[in-house]
Amino acid sequence: MSEKHIKNQRSKLGPILVILVGLILLVITLFLSILSRSNENSTVTVSPVSMEQITRIKPEEAFANLENSSVVFLDVRSQALYEQEHISGSINIPLAEIETRLSKLDKSKWIIAYCT
């Protein structure tokens, strides 16, 4: 092969390599952008809790605290069931939405969750 022919082939590869490197950089940028957005949307991390870690109380004890302003009653049933009947002053966060809406609760208060 002549030297002129080799130079001609190299000059054709130049633009292709530039486009290929540009596409690779674009894909990497998109991937990092998607990854950073998914990290921004995660507001609450809920750790699994064993049944032994959950304090159970009797209904009498819960209702004794009904007028206590440091207690929040959390109804974890569906919104439709909550609208039919609920404890006055309770907050409705359906169990399916608890992970995404848990940050809306005042952690300084005693939260009494109920579902029936």
| Spatial order of the strands forming the largest sheet | 2-1-3
How many separate structural domains? 2
Low-confidence stretches: none
DSSP strand (E) fraction?
5-15%
What does the radius of gyration come to? 29 Å
**Helix content range of the residues, please?**
40-55%
How do the helices and strands follow one another from N- to C-terminus? HHEHEHE
The total count of strands amounts to 3
Shape: rod-shaped
Question: Can you tell me the CATH architecture of the largest domain?
Answer: 3-Layer(aba) Sandwich
Number of helices: 4
Q: What is the CATH fold-level name of the largest domain? A: Oxidized Rhodanese, domain 1
For the record, the CATH class of the largest domain is Alpha Beta
- Major β-sheet annotation: 3 strands, parallel
How confident overall, as mean pLDDT?
76
Q: What oligomeric arrangement do these chains adopt?
A: single chain
Q: Helix- and strand-based class? A: mainly alpha
CATH homology superfamily of the largest domain: Rhodanese-like domain
Give a description of the structure.
With 116 residues, the protein is mainly alpha-helical. 47% of the residues lie in helices and 10% in strands. It folds into 2 domains: 1-42; 51-114, 3-Layer(aba) Sandwich (Oxidized Rhodanese, domain 1). It has helices spanning 3-41, 59-64, 79-84, 98-101, and strands at residues 71-75, 91-92, 110-114. The chain has a 3-stranded parallel β-sheet, with no helix packed on it. The chain starts with a helix and ends with a strand. The mean pLDDT is 76.
